[in-house]
Amino acid sequence: MKCPFCGSFEDQVLDSRPIEHLPAVRRRRECSGCKKRYTTFERPEEISLMVVKSDQSRQPFDRKKIWEGIDRACRKRPIAVETIDKIVSEIENELTGEYVMEIPSSVIGQKILDKLWDVDLVAYIRFASVYRKFGDIDTFMAELKKLKKEHIKRQLKNNK
Questions:
Q1: pTM score, two decimals?
Q2: How far is CA 123 from CA 10, 83, 115, 143, in A?
């Protein structure tokens, strides 16, 4: 494993444990060069799914793209990297369980929005603004009003 701090390939695994409900292993490592610690995740390689884009083009499913999109939406928010990893893993597991060969990109985007709703509403609106291609302030405001209305509804339901 390459150290993200100094680039050394020499490290030592300090702790290794399975991730609950996911086919993955979390490893805590220490670099032999700079002595800094970092976490890695290992998961089995799945069969290759194709994502069908809105223009009907197809490209291989890429977990990294989902991670990067969620990471951008969560920047400067109090959301741990482990939470992002968990969201991405949950989405990936749901998709591989529901789809065999092809996945519409709209399904992926909606799953991301559903997960972000439960984690952070600011991250949700950031992702929605890019995913739904808000073209002007009116579209943005309409989504914010819908978000606020649904948020109030959920709060009332939870308080009962």
A1: 0.69
A2: 36, 13, 10, 13
**For the sheet containing 11-18, what is the strand order?**
11-18, 25-31, 37-42
Q: Compute the distance between CA of residue 127 and CA of residue 102 in angstroms, rounded to an integer.
A: 23
Residues 6+ apart with CB under 8 A from 20: none
Residue 61 has pLDDT above 70, yes or no: yes
In the predicted structure, residue 117 carries a pLDDT above the cut 80: yes
Asked if 114 contacts 107 with a C-beta cutoff of 8 angstroms, the reply is no
d(CA 127, CA 133): 10
Q: Give Rg (Cα) of the chain.
A: 19
* The residue to which tokens 């702790």 are assigned: 15
Residue with the two structure tokens 């073209």 = 135
Instruction: Give the dihedral of Cα atoms 120, 126, 131, 132; nearest 10 deg.
Output: 100
21: left (phi over 0), alpha (psi -120 to 50) or beta: left
Strands 50-52, 102-104: pairing is parallel
